Rhomboid-related protein 2
Amino acid sequence: MGRRHLNEEDYRKKKEKKEIWIKPRKKKGHLLNMWCRKVHRPISKWILPPDAQGNYPQRVRCLPPPLFISIISILQVVIFLYYTFWKPQEQWITLEIGIWESPFIYRPDKRKQAWRFISYMMVHAGVQHICGNLLMQLLLGLPLEMVHKGHRVGLVYLSGVIAGSLGSSIWDPFQALVGASGGVYALTGGYFMNVLMNFKNMVPLFGLFRLILILLTVVFDLGFGLYKKFIAPASEPRVSIVAHIAGGLAGMTIGYTVFSCFEKELLKEPMFWVAIIAYFVCVSFAVFFNIFLSPVD
């Protein structure tokens, strides 16, 4: 018994000595979790109000990745390249016949094809147009989707797209539409309202910097849109300011509600249903207007 006990002691000491020199292997899931937390930490500071950041690390998930914004962006690039290279007209700068005849574009005379009220977000009029939308869409949409997940970001984005086309069909009824500005402005509006409403809980300079950055971006973009609408030569495509504003308003209502309910179930939130009902009433009126009152017919 004594010899056996001695052998076991020697074996244990040799094993402990070996473990000192051999570094323990970290599991793949553990490494992914550590990387995920490092990525999400600065993102949560930008996206979430301070009172919601405390519980966020426990809810961090890297899978699935932000698929909605990624897929939408890839499709927009593919469709843009198609109308640039595989059509006889070049689409780098101007809106030509190739894209005008596209089944995606919203055209007032084709508005009975209801899908056009959404599908116009897939086509763009030139490099400057698609690059501007993609830049804002990726810089803001990807972090928002990483925090709030694709179904919430998709709801806000599409609400802005639909609001943009329906609003333009009422207030600018003869204007054709291309581009994802309605969806981008919805994301921007929702994020802006969250920063504004939670400003008192933030570090003042950090909150002020975000507000100024959003306002400068929107003012510059709307200013460029006003130039294209009223000052630019008639040969250049016009920009629908109404679509931008309507998308932003959708974001400031539905987007704010969705993004502010980070730790809550949307379907159990009264504020969410108030925003949805108000949105549905506006959409119903716009549909009625397009069927019975539109001056296009």
